[in-house]
Amino acid sequence: MSLAELPVLERARAVYADGSLLEWRPLNGLQRMMLRWEQFCPLNAAHVLTLSGSVTASSLGDAVRAALGRHFPLPAEVCTGGNRMRCGVRLGQGGDVELTVSSVHRQPELAIAGVLDRELNRYFPGGLHWPFRFHAICETADRWHLVVVYRHAFMDSRGISALCRSVLRVLRGFELTEPAPGFAPDLSSIVPAFSDSAAARHSVVSVSREIFHGLGSWRAQQRFAGPDRCVTGVESESLSLSGVLQSARSLGVTVQDLLLAAMHDSLSQMSLVTGRRQRIGLYTPVDLRQETVPPVPEASGQVLGGYTLRLPRERGGSFADLAKRVSRESQAIKRSGHYRLYERHLSFMTAVWDRLSHRANEVAGPFLAPVAALASNVNLNVFFEDELQSGQLLDYSRYTGTGIMTSMMVGLTTCGANCRISTTHHSTLFAESEIRELRRRVCCRLLGEFQQL
Asked: For the CA atoms of 348, 350, 354, 360, what is the dihedral angle to 10 degrees?
């Protein structure tokens, strides 16, 4: 009998003998805040993988179920109040995971864009449910696209990449013999110095500083009528990894800092960035897995810190100087360790959020600490080394819903010899032509065009 055919409770006991997923687990501050943002719009994310090799709809379905059996074998639920979660154990509830298979004969990117634009704007159900949806798009007999949509409050990008890697390994005929990863513990128990009194003081100071600077930061205003939807860029650009690395080296900065500088530069040139608010807030997440004790490399859940740069808008200045300034500020934040307290900031903000009305949250949240863009940079070359060397994984891109706090998102994903730039934005805030121009400028900066554009 296959794993998918086992009764739900027996299946959980077979895979998670210690019951680690069956017990209520406290949500961290980021997860709690995400659930509150979902009051206004879905907060989903998606990874898109391009696969080659011998794949069929049946084999892909079996691989997805086997991977879920290791990583997340049961539907999940959130308790009343939204501050704890677990895998559910009620028999006969939750149904099977959603897996849709389709075929395209040309322009698969349009089919993928259609799936993304639909799924990023589609709520996951309440109660006991699978926090994943899978779409398999067959382009040719040996070329498939797998779209993995997930509810972001339950999982972060690294957890989904681990799930995807398990899918690929099953497709290559390997058995998943590694121990099940389970949920990540609460950050206060695994991040060094997270709970000491000095951290508490730093947290209060950092939150106050964030609000103070946020009051002087630009926020995108609604410009277009109609329902607000999360829109993905159809023409995600592929860049040469060697070209991006050379650009960063020539300035003496990291690829992450180069991406942040390119985003700041591109937003500064937008004509809609007007008014007295002249700072541009750029948020970037930081994976804390390598800093935790013990490390939690594949655990489900959010294991993220983060920080926001709020540099004044500049026009006509040197891009090289901007990149070096971004680098100095980023390095100072990393040396201080304040990025580890991001989850703690959000724990504080959820307490404030819950005391305000729905309308007050809708208006005050984006107004107090507006973020112009979320910038996420992930290099998957080591993580997917075997899949890349075997030729099974051809491409990988990531898309994230932005919620009400962030105007847009740009993702830089390194896979093999290329980097993929992808964007999502609010349909009521930006025109698609503006986002295309922004992506063009970002790509030019990443590839070393540092003069005036």
From this structure: 100
Judged by DSSP in three states, 434 sits in: helix
Residues 200 and 342: beta-carbon distance below 8 Å: no
Cβ atoms < 10 Å from Cβ of 382: 8
- Partners of 225 in the β-ladder: none
Residue 402: name the closest of 372, 365, 378 by CA. 372
Find out whether 410 and 263 touch, Cβ atoms under 8 Å. yes
Which token pair is 128?
């006991």
Instruction: Kindly report, residue by residue over 332-390, the tens digit of the pLDDT.
Output: 999 988 898 888 888 888 888 888 888 888 877 777 778 999 999 999 999 999 999 99
Residue 316: Cβ within 10 Å count: 7
Strand order in the sheet with 98-103: 98-103, 132-140, 143-151, 44-52, 393-400
Q: Residue 317: its pLDDT value, please?
A: 81
Dump pLDDT digits (tens) for 329-341.
Answer: 999 999 988 898 8
Cα 353 to Cα 348: distance, rounded to the nearest angstrom: 9
Q: How far apart are CA 150 and CA 167, in angstroms?
A: 15
* Rounded-to-integer distance, Cα 17 and Cα 380, Å: 31
Longest dimension (CA), the chain: 66
- Can you give the pLDDT at residue 267? 92
Q: How far is CA 225 from CA 20, 122, 228, 272, 389, in A?
A: 47, 20, 8, 17, 48
Contact partners, residue 395, CB within 8 Å, separation at least 6: 48, 49, 50, 238, 415, 416, 418, 420
Q: Which of 266, 268, 262, 306 is closest to 284 using CA atoms?
A: 306
- Contact present, 97 and 163 (Cβ < 8 Å): no
Report how far residue 146's alpha carbon sits from residue 135's, in angstroms, rounded to the nearest whole number. 6
Tokens of 12: 């959980």
Place of tokens 């920080």: 307
Q: By C-alpha distance, which of 444, 199, 225 is closest to 339? A: 199
Residue 109: which of 395, 407, 428 has the closest Cα?
Answer: 395
For residue 360 the two structure tokens come to 């007050």
